[in-house]
């Protein structure tokens, strides 16, 4: 399979909506997602994507910032690979490409959150060398 990697141009950010709707299990409407992503692309956010030929099969949002405890870093967000492409080494390949890309942009660390019940992702990220640093809390106001 000829896999390619690219950064989604801000003007084309809505092209990731089919995967975002799968990831969010339609808990957030497409209209709300489009509105939020329109803002996100103006706020130190980029979206990495992987394609099988012309078919979008994976995404990873990237938030760039500088943190007091890690320096210049990227926080990965909404990492998702289509079911049919999992367990084939593609996630590891995608992460390597992301590490190389963010290193070229001056990042010294990669961070992410994963849902507590998403055990397969925990195993994957442990195998990638991630460590649990703390808990992520959220309060909607």
Domain unit count: 1
Report the count of strand segments. 5
Distance between the termini: 46 Å
| Shape label | globular
List the helices and strands and how they pair.
Elements: E1 3-7, H1 17-23, H2 30-40, E2 45-52, E3 55-67, E4 71-81, H3 90-104, E5 109-112, H4 119-127
Parallel strand pairs: 4-5
Antiparallel strand pairs: 1-2, 2-3, 3-4
Description:
The chain has 141 residues and is of the alpha+beta class. The protein has a single domain (3-127), classed as 3-Layer(aba) Sandwich (Aminopeptidase). It has four helices and five strands, in the order βααβββαβα. It has a five-stranded mixed β-sheet. The longest helix is centred in the C-terminal third of the chain and has 15 residues, at 90-104.
Question: Summarize this, please?
Answer:
The chain is α+β, with helices and mostly antiparallel strands. The chain has 4 helices and 5 strands.
Characteristics of this structure?
five-stranded mixed β-sheet; Aminopeptidase; single chain
